[in-house]
Write a structure and sequence with these properties.
51 residues, 1 helix, transmembrane helix
Length: 51
């Protein structure tokens, strides 16, 4: 009984961890894409994305 609850808890925790990793990778990718877009279009004038 206790073991099955522990397995379910670990499974939910693993799924949340995978969602967190996917979200952090997506955030990192969009930040890098934003920086690349700003660097490639910096000659157009003042940039919208300010650090």
């Amino acid at each position: 009984m206790i073991l099955s609850r522990l397995v379910i808890f670990l499974h939910i925790l693993y799924n949340k961890q995978m969602i967190f990793y996917c979200f952090s990778y997506f955030t990192l990718f969009s930040c890098m894409a934003q920086l690349f877009f700003t660097a490639s279009h910096v000659e157009r004038g003042p940039t919208r994305w300010t650090t």
